[in-house]
């Protein structure tokens, strides 16, 4: 083998260690640290496995030394300028770290510089004693001293083609290294924020699902209550048909309300049953401007209700009074039932009893059924076209509508010779029930063959939240579950797809529904779903609306502690 000179014998470990100890300045000037845990170097640095000891005092070939002298100062200055403030602060003793295990091919000067670096940095000296210093390899076998000598005798042009063996890919610049190090460091503010959000979402989901589970009515309680309700309702219908003249045409009970819409929560303790009296030909005139209240006049005919319309207008107060008397007569034979005191403006006769230590109330509501076109005020209402479809909407509008004996304000208030206590309020509870039972834009929503949605669950949670806030502050008593139901119906018309209400998105959907409700409260406007000219919040104090909106927002922001 020929060359410019034979490699000298490797100095003994003791000699090497001594020299390393006595020349720390030289080490600082001539060496740059590489990847953490790896010794800088290329094939030229690697020794046979039998030696496994670095020779820091080897004499380098003249070509190598000449190249170093030429580029040393320039490269050192360039790297010093590239050093970021973060690197200077974090590792002042290590200098700039140049990745060699994931590095890009270096320039001619950088390659020559790296070939000569076999001396350990102060950091390397601290970690490993000179006797145990080992050259890290990336899957390349060590070569003999003769082979290394031949490889060093290359032309300057060939240095351009020299590529450092890498473990994985291209090296980054010192700036990129610093940025990547920052990104992968655990516990950064962004990572912490995301983790916090995930934890909060999981916590809220757990609370909501637990609350829904607690609100479920047990099957045995449901069946027991339903049996008692059906028995008394059927008895009242039979009594009206057989023992009265004016109510003998009563039709089958129209079971409406939350229990029959599968929206009842906690206990089956409230039931609503509407007993309809059909009328064929009537004239209705709006009472007031909101389109929800009407005076009713019977046309010519032999209707059994004529006795209540002798003055021209069908008197709601007189008709409700006689209906109440007949219900009382029927209930006398059922000792377990009691008729409660009449409430002002309430269209129902309320009965109470106890079933399995739970007090149950039944509202028996008198109504008249009108088989004609819906009132003109409903023309712009029930906007379910984009949600349930135009055909479904037309089917609903071909249904009859109902009028119940209810008024607002003072019963003695008069408009066009008609007293408020004698007017009727339009009711679409039967359509509400139909919508909520078939609530999906896809016909299979919540059926055995279809995906479940969370529309009803969201409404249950909102009703429960409202009831808890009313227990907490009695000034919220005028807000009712019908406000919550109307909010849901509007929300379903604005977010029409079933995928937007998937069961797995309960937390997200519920909070969106709360935002809708809060927006209605803050504006003081919540339009009737069927009669868009009626504002359901018009009779409520705006300060109370704002106060309720704040409480709901607080609960939402704090993860619903009221449910715990």
Counted beta strands? 11
Strand percentage lies at: 5-15%
Task: Tell me the radius of gyration.
Answer: 43 Å
Count of alpha/pi helices: 17
Note the main attributes of this structure.
two-stranded antiparallel sheet; Poly(a)-polymerase, middle domain; 17 helices; Beta Polymerase, domain 2; alpha+beta; 3 domains
Overview of the molecule:
The protein is an alpha+beta fold and 564 residues long. The protein folds into three domains: 13-185, no CATH class; 217-428, Beta Polymerase, domain 2, CATH 3.30.460; 439-564, Orthogonal Bundle (Poly(a)-polymerase, middle domain), CATH 1.10.1410.40. It is 40% helix and 10% strand. It has 17 helices and eleven strands. The chain has helices at residues 13-22, 24-30, 62-82, 85-90, 108-115, 122-127, 145-152, 174-184, 189-215, 219-243, 316-331, 390-397, 429-437, 455-472, 481-494, 506-523, 542-557; strands at 254-256, 270-279, 282-286, 293-298, 338-339, 348-355, 358-370, 401-404, 414-415, 418-419, 424-427. Strands 1, 2, 3, 4, 5, 6, 7, 8 and 11 form a nine-stranded mixed beta sheet that branches. A hairpin with a 2-residue loop joins β6 (348-355) and β7. α10 (219-243) crosses α11. The longest helix is centred in the middle third of the chain and has 27 residues, at 189-215. The radius of gyration is 43 Å and the shape is globular. The model is unreliable at 1-64, 83-145, 148-187 and 191-197 (pLDDT under 50).
């Amino acid at each position: 083998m020929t060359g410019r000179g034979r490699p000298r014998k490797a100095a003994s470990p003791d000699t090497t260690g001594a020299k390393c100890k006595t020349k720390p300045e030289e080490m600082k000037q001539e060496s740059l640290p590489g990847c953490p845990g790896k010794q800088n170097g290329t094939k030229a640095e690697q020794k046979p496995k039998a030696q496994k000891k670095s020779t820091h005092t080897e004499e380098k070939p003249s070509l190598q030394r000449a190249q170093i002298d030429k580029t040393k100062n320039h490269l050192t200055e360039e790297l010093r300028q590239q050093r970021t403030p973060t690197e200077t602060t974090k590792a002042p003793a290590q200098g700039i770290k140049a990745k060699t295990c994931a590095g890009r091919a270096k320039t001619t000067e950088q390659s020559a510089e790296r070939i000569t670096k076999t001396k350990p940095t102060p950091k390397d000296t601290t970690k490993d004693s000179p006797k145990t210093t080992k050259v890290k390899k990336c899957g390349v076998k060590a070569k003999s001293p003769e082979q290394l000598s031949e490889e060093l005798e290359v032309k300057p042009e060939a240095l351009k083609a020299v590529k450092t063996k890498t473990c994985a890919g291209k090296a980054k610049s010192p700036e990129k290294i610093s940025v990547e190090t920052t990104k992968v460091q655990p516990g950064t503010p962004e990572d912490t924020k995301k983790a916090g959000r995930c934890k909060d979402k999981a916590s809220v989901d757990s609370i909501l699902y637990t609350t829904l589970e607690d609100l479920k009515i047990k099957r045995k309680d449901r069946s027991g209550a339903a049996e008692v309700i059906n028995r008394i309702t059927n008895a009242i219908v039979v009594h009206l048909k057989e023992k009265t003249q004016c109510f003998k045409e009563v039709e089958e009970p129209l079971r409406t309300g939350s229990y029959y819409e599968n929206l009842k929560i906690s206990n089956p303790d409230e039931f609503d049953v509407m007993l309809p009296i059909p009328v064929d030909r009537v004239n209705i005139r709006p009472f007031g401007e909101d389109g929800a209240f009407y005076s009713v006049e019977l046309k010519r005919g032999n209707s059994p209700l004529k006795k209540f319309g002798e003055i021209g207008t069908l008197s709601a107060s007189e008709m409700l009074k006689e209906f109440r008397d007949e219900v009382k007569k029927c209930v006398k034979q059922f000792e377990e039932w009691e008729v409660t005191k009449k409430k002002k403006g309430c269209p129902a006769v309320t009965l109470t009893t106890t079933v399995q230590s739970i007090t149950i109330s039944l509202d028996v509501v008198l109504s008249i059924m009108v088989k004609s076109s819906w009132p003109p005020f409903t023309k712009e209402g029930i906007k379910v076209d984009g949600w349930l479809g135009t055909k479904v909407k037309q089917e609903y509008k071909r249904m009859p509508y109902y009028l119940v004996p209810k008024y607002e304000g003072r019963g003695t208030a008069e408009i066009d010779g008609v007293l408020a206590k004698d007017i009727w309020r339009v009711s679409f509870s039967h359509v509400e029930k139909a919508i909520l039972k078939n609530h999906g834009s896809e016909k299979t929503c919540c059926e055995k063959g279809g995906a479940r949605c969370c529309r009803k669950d969201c409404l249950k949670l909102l009703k429960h939240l409202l009831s808890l806030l009313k227990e907490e502050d009695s000034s919220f008593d005028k807000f009712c579950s019908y406000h919550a139901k109307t909010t849901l119906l509007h929300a379903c018309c604005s977010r029409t797809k079933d995928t937007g209400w998937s069961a797995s998105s309960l937390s997200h959907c519920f909070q969106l529904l709360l935002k809708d409700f809060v927006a209605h409260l803050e504006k003081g406007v919540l339009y009737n779903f069927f009669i868009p000219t009626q504002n359901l919040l018009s009779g409520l104090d705006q300060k109370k609306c704002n106060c309720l909106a704040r409480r709901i927002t607080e609960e939402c922001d704090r993860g619903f502690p009221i449910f715990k």
